[in-house]
């Protein structure tokens, strides 16, 4: 395993802002910026310095971040082991989830086997572990970034408690595998597609790293968290379900490669990050048409959402690929298939400048908080004002979207 990081950036954090107490600011002494994976360390440092200096342009995003983090702190402390039935393994620490688009069979008395209704989520899904996974990811991610920008130890303390409970304590931790994710009643005990559900954890490694300077974080918790993600990355890259997802032709495959890359990076395994980055050009060649369409994604019942969803995975892989010397942003095949062409095709539809010609059974505006992430990354990578123009046209951006755009993924430089 290659433990050397390809990028390290330093930062001094100091000062008061937006009514935080002197004690809160003193809780985050000057320190080297922790390694991060989905965020650009230099941009993150620049934005934090602007926040600490009281940049009024960032006040709405900081206020939204604090509000969201405080809301997530109210979520109950949950454990994967807390469920009424035991998985086939006999271990309640194993994650279990119902496949979202599968429903009771209307033609059988017992409803078995379940039948597929693409794009329609079965509410029975809430009875299993998916919301526990999501709540854990929310609390740690939002609190980790809130601590980084505010220095408020409340956020660090809450995040560290959740990390110990969900990833480390033998009685309450989640086993680092997805053997029983997205099971279908009457059909199977689990499917490879469950791997995509751990996207709910993808911001957790960055958030944990940003907690390293807090009073609450200990070497034992940091080491335990890194080990959990190391074990999960290995499972993803070696198990039948993990490799089955990784080799998938659609967004599931892209996201599996992305997850392997950033969990491996958090574990210090940059060789595996390079391995995943080197797989992406072939994926671009097979997933995109020369005009930028993604045939496998547009055939879904929410074709525009899935078009952006796969582009978002591509942009996150491109960010990590830069760290290992692979340029995915400018890669294109001989006939022009590329990430950039994928955006050029989709942006008129994202901005509602043209009517989406394929299926989209729910309003795509509901996903604009997510769209803004991929568009902002592309805006930074391509230095093209068209991306910011499209972002400005997105409807319904909430506090979460504002925070991702302006703080976590970062604003363009002030001179822009």
TrEMBL record:
Q: Which domain of life is it from?
A: Bacteria
Q: Which SUPFAM superfamilies match?
A: Chondroitin AC/alginate lyase
Q: Tell me, what is one Gene Ontology molecular-function annotation carried by this entry?
A: lyase activity
Q: Where is the signal peptide?
A: 1-27
* Keyword annotations: Lyase, Signal
Q: What are the Alginate lyase domain coordinates in residue numbering?
A: 80-356
Name a GO CC annotation attached to this entry: periplasmic space
Name by which UniProt lists this protein: Alginate lyase domain-containing protein
Which species expresses this protein natively? Algisphaera agarilytica
